[in-house]
Design brief:
globular; mainly alpha; 76% helix
Length: 190
């Protein structure tokens, strides 16, 4: 982990001192195109007969979303996720911000930063990152689910219901499926 932090600091310092010239030298390649594999996983999740099978397919989807464009981007993503897992949200945020600066067209950087905002209960900050994730990766089921949870926390129940239904249409086995009746009831009360 120390090497990851050192890399983040080195990139930030290099960008600060060398500006646009260095940024042009260190260009993030396009994210891998996993659209066909994601289509197959979504179809399999829709046809899955039980929760265990659906969860396994969700894990395979995560493997696709977390496949960064290059080794440096992967290092930043892994560092941020490791930091998040030990509740070092400041360190995680730095890693995800560095990832977004390096790879502005890689959806998972925004999704992970949104998750940190969500964990910090800064729901208003999470929503634009989730929207950017979905602009880059419209079938990111986890981001759609995260958007539903964020909208619910912002008391935007009708939008939350629509988002959760959209996610469940792609993967009916999401653990958040149990929240749909609760959100629908809350929407009815409004």
């Amino acid at each position: 982990m120390k090497n990851g932090v050192a890399s983040i600091i080195a990139l930030a310092l290099s960008l600060a001192f060398h500006g646009p010239a260095l940024a042009q030298e260190q260009t993030c390649p396009p994210a891998p195109d996993h659209s066909a594999a994601l289509t197959d996983l979504i179809r399999a999740a829709q046809a899955a007969e039980d929760e265990r099978s659906g969860r396994m397919l969700s894990n395979e989807m995560w493997a696709l979303w977390s496949d960064a464009p290059d080794s440096y981007a992967q290092e930043l993503l892994d560092e941020g996720m490791s930091r998040r897992n030990i509740y070092d949200y400041d360190g995680a945020m730095k890693a995800f911000e560095a990832l977004i600066a390096y790879c502005p067209d890689y959806a998972e950087g925004y999704n992970q930063r949104a998750f940190i905002h969500f964990l910090r209960e800064d729901f208003s900050a999470a929503l634009p990152d989730l929207d950017r994730t979905l602009a880059l990766s419209p079938r990111h089921v986890a981001a759609i689910t995260g958007r539903a949870l964020t909208l619910s926390a912002l008391e935007r129940k009708a939008e939350a219901v629509l988002a959760l239904r959209k996610a469940l249409a792609m993967n009916p086995w999401l653990s958040e499926r149990h929240l749909l009746p609760v959100l629908e009831a809350a929407e009815q009360e409004l």
